[in-house]
Amino acid sequence: MSGKEVTITDLAEKLGISYATVSRSLADHPRISQKTKERVTELAAELGYRPNHYARNLRDKKTSTLGVIVPRLDSVFMSAVIAGMEDTAQANGYNLLISQSSEQFEIEQQSVKTMYNSRVDGLMVSVGYQTTNGDHFALFTKKGVPVVFFDRCTGDEEHAVIIDNERAGYEATQHLIGRNCKKILHITADSQVNVYKDRLSGFREALLDNGLSYHPEHILYTDLSYESGVKAAQKILEMSDRPDGVFAANDSCAVGCMIALKGAGIKIPSDIAFVGFNNDLIARVIEPQLSTINYPAYAMGAASAQELINRLNQTEGVKKHKRVVLQSGLIVRGSSERM
């Protein structure tokens, strides 16, 4: 039977017994004799039979699989988020099916359809840069399949696990102001999703609260990659009135910018102080180490998975509209310690 998946019907035909007897033998049913069970299991092992858990779960209207859609997988932050999801899911008898949108709306839409057709029991999503609404998730919501958003949201969500990005942006900027920075540049993403809008809002409010001017030209829009940080450094070097502080919306971009500026002779933090965001490993290996906002990635993944599982189990206390807000906080290191 080489090349063909062995079925219960194949086993039944070879043994000359009924399909039901083979099925019950494989399930260790007490009414089936030990001798029959041994015959079935020996032949199953010989022919390489594999139980079709997927088909059985479909009969039960459950796949024990949770879908996850993320913008990018090549991120320390997202790896930690997924680790938290996986540990929580496995502890509750679920597996994960993971897809990345690569920040492209069309791929995100297709991923939603793929997850739906794969019959995942529920979905966890962090939306891409280009996503402005959650209309494409109606496939799930119309069928009553729960969806939990995490980190990046569109604002239309019923359930989301986030941090207070506005407060974090305010805290990062306030810290730079407290270190005598007067001209602060913000490097962010040109996106409609919550995290970057809210961090920008916090940046702006901190400036205004301290009597500093807010100018649109003090905002650099990038894709927040390491390479975009290097490009941001070139723009800073070309400025006639350079900033004395930089708040970057992630650590990778901040480090790329710092290294390029240091290579051009800029002293950090005495010439330009830096604060990043996420507390990735890269923040601790750069010299000076990068001050940053600690983003509890593993806890976010664990909380997102638990929130989804609670909804699947209809756990008491789960509300229709609910936002879980996790704690974040500033970690002060050498990159911002200027007088």
Short characterization:
The protein is of the alpha/beta class and 339 residues long. Helix content is 43%, strand content 17%.
Describe it.
- By secondary structure, the protein is α/β, with parallel strands linked by helices.
- The chain is built from 13 helices and 12 strands.
- The termini are far apart.
Estimate nothing, just give the exact number of structural domains. 3
Average pLDDT confidence is: 90
Quaternary status = single chain
Overall strand count: 12
Strands in their spatial order, largest beta sheet: 2-1-3-4-5-11
The number of distinct helices, counting runs of at least 4 residues, comes to 13
- CATH superfamily (homologous) name of the largest domain: Response regulator
**Shape category:** elongated
Q: Main β-sheet: number of strands, strand sense, barrel status?
A: 6 strands, parallel
**Content-based structural category:** alpha/beta
Query: CATH fold name of the largest domain, please?
Result: Rossmann fold
Describe the secondary-structure layout.
Blueprint (H helix, E strand, L loop, with lengths): L7 H8 L3 H8 L7 H14 L5 H7 L5 E6 L5 H16 L3 E6 L4 H13 L4 E4 L12 H4 L5 E4 L8 E5 L1 H14 L5 E6 L4 H16 L9 E4 L3 H13 L6 E4 L2 H13 L9 E6 L3 H4 L5 E4 L2 H16 L9 E5 L2 E3 L8
Which keywords apply here?
six-stranded parallel β-sheet; six-stranded mixed β-sheet; 434 Repressor (Amino-terminal Domain); 17% strand; single chain; 43% helix; 339 residues; elongated; alpha/beta
